[in-house]
């Protein structure tokens, strides 16, 4: 059985790596083989504190892990400023790449990573876990069924988290040399990704940050942002996204169409690990006397035995096995999703830098 498992290595001991270490061992086709930090002591402490088995290899440098021929996939929960260096090197070492979001500081950097993956025949995937949840698949099914939502008119997506004072002093997400995209690359990546997902990954025509919704720190890092994405092709759609390090936790996604609407409050991380739901109103209108609705919103429940992060790992391991055993090419769909998300994130950042003038795509 062990020979059928894909060996994963984790490059870096960031907090999110704890979640992925568990996910790798929960997925039925993968196993955590090694971890690395810039110091052997930090890597050892990570393994001990998180109850990892003693059989896991521990490396005191990133290079050592990447030189291990037994490792097939590398997860990189590194600061965004380090993504190009280590993701490109991982690809050159013939490792499949699972890269934490945001994928890069800009699309130029991301293209360097993707080109390295293509030229070395390895799979690329970013860490947008929610895309792998069966609830997301069910929503997509209903969204593109003309009998339910119809043509999408409006999308509203938020991802916010109220951070403590020490976050704004010490966290890498507020450091220009570590994660220069700030909240836009962190929480905003989900909001942009949700809009693109709802539009079947068609890019908007125009992107505009809204002046009242933008807050920066003294280093110019965006801490809060609201933006409008406009679609003029075929059927006009307006999307509003909001991401912030100042507001109470929210992960809202609302999609309104010509026949119905779809709503959920936890699209990034479900309230419960083993079950998730969303509200579907289709078709719905007021009663004749306008004292209520003619139908109740339907609560659609989707159960899942495997957490979404483990499903993400399982998908990447499946693709890695297909490349190795069957000679399949890497799946271009996942890097394309990341690249389009990066393009829109870049456009919002550009609009902010231009005093919230519109940016045309």
UniProtKB/TrEMBL annotation:
UniProt xrefs under InterPro entries: Gfo/Idh/MocA-like_OxRdtase_N, GFO_IDH_MocA-like_dom, NAD(P)-bd_dom_sf
One Pfam family per UniProt: GFO_IDH_MocA
Matches recorded under Gene3D superfamilies: Dihydrodipicolinate Reductase, domain 2, NAD(P)-binding Rossmann-like Domain
Residue ranges annotated for the Gfo/Idh/MocA-like oxidoreductase N-terminal domain, each copy included: 6-124
Coiled-coil ranges from the UniProt annotation: none
Annotated signal peptide: none
One Gene Ontology molecular-function label: nucleotide binding
Sequence ranges assigned to domain GFO/IDH/MocA-like oxidoreductase in this UniProt record: 139-262
Similarity section: Belongs to the Gfo/Idh/MocA family.
Name this protein carries in UniProt: Gfo/Idh/MocA-like oxidoreductase N-terminal domain-containing protein
